[in-house]
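Entry 12.
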Amino acid sequence: MNFFYNFFSGNFIPHGHCYLWKPELVSLHIFSDSVIALCYYSIPLTLIYFVRKREDVPFKSIFLLFGAFIVSCGTTHIMEVWTLWYPVYWLSGAIKAFTAIISFYTALTLIPLVPQALALPSPAQLEVANKALQEENTERKRVEQELREYKERLEELVNQRTAELAKANEHLQQEIIQRQQSQEKMGRLFKQIESANKELNDFAYVVSHDLKAPLRGIASLSEWLLADYADKFDEQGREFVHLLINRVQRMQNLIDGILKYSKVGRIQEESRQVNLDKLITDVIDILNPGENIHIEIAHSLPVVYCEKTRIEQVFQNLLSNAIKFIDKSQGQIIIDCLDKKDYWQFSVADNGLGIEQQYFEKIFQIFQKLSSSKDSDSTGIGLALVKKIVELYDGKVWVESELGQGSTFFFTLKKQQTNLM
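Predicted 3D structure (tokens):
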């Protein structure tokens, strides 16, 4: 014990000597330090009690640090009283050093907690939040009441709807029966259509062979008559024979036109990419226009996806029609194409006779043609065939013309139909 005392006292004199052992001064320091120490020791007990009672209190660690700091401070005041008689200044200094460390660590810990503490809602804010919660609770109860009412109403609607669905189901069953009957009827009609289609094909075969064969015979006999008995006929006789040959040729053209018209939409060939520039060149070579007729392609034509024969028939009919009705010494035909975003717009313009506006619709009807000395061999099927093919591709065809100035025939092809690779 003496070693412990000697180690911490270091042969110093007690602190009371500094006060000359005046009773009133010594008593003052003893009373003040004792009261301060007791108050310091009571504060941690209060904090511990508070923290234990309020488990939801944030920053519990800072309360523990405050408690350690306050206990250390109280202990330093106890040492002030003790050193009045016992000069253990090393022990007192060690306790103060420990208090300093605790104080410094507490201060460092407290600084970053200040923003978090400031962020905590104030009592006024808590009151507002509590009021809002009360209002929300009232609203929730009101909504629950409405939901109960809605539920009752919904049950009524469900029952009503169930009854309606039962009636609808019964009606649907009747419709199914009717649809089955309609499908059976459609099946019978389809068979009738197939039979009619077969008959139409047979008729086309008869027309193309059995009817054209006699016509070819009549034409051959007429030509033989002209060749073998030309010297026996007078001028009027030769004219009658030529008229007979022309009528036979016109009849053959009419039969060919009817066959082509009847096949559109009924007989399909494989669609493929068609280079219209090359196709137009081939069509012009087939038509072999006279030297006085100049055919020009204004812009390069697109490559389209379609049935080659069909689009060839369209251009062949439009070009032959334009060539036939050119009455000028120098004929001019211009083929053009415009890109209209969703479709191509094609045009075939000529400087021929022209057409009166009242006939713009009529010329696209089958067997309808304009009276003219130049179209004596016209069948009235060509433009009707063009219209049928273009409409088969969801396009439109029309004409713009001025009498004596020429005509321009337009037709369109949708791009979404011409690019279906």
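Annotation: The longest strand covers residues 331-339. The chain has three domains: 2-120, 121-263, 269-418.
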